[in-house]
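re: ur question from earlier - yeah i can do the single chain one, its not a big deal. heres the input i used so u can compare w yours
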Amino acid sequence: MADDLFKALADPTRRTILDELAEKSGQTLFEICSRLTMKHQLDLSRQGVSQHLAVLEAAGLVETRREGRYKFHDLNTAPLRRIVDRWPVPDPSSTQEQSP
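and the output i got, formated as tokens:
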């Protein structure tokens, strides 16, 4: 699971897609493609964006739902929280108190 997550986050285009979903969740493929083109000047085909979304979905970072003929994409930050919980940052104040 963590390997898929790090692979998904390694690509700058996928991180941009996640940024867009963080800004506005529940977008269709058409909306995502439009935003990538207009805001980020990324010239990707719909198939290319679909492949990026598939990698993000496999990593658990994107969830999809269907409503009629439309497929909506939502950001899921739970896998990121599991990574943060795996390697907690020690509290610097507790380290100072334990020093002699």
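The mean pLDDT is 91. not sure if urs matches, ping me
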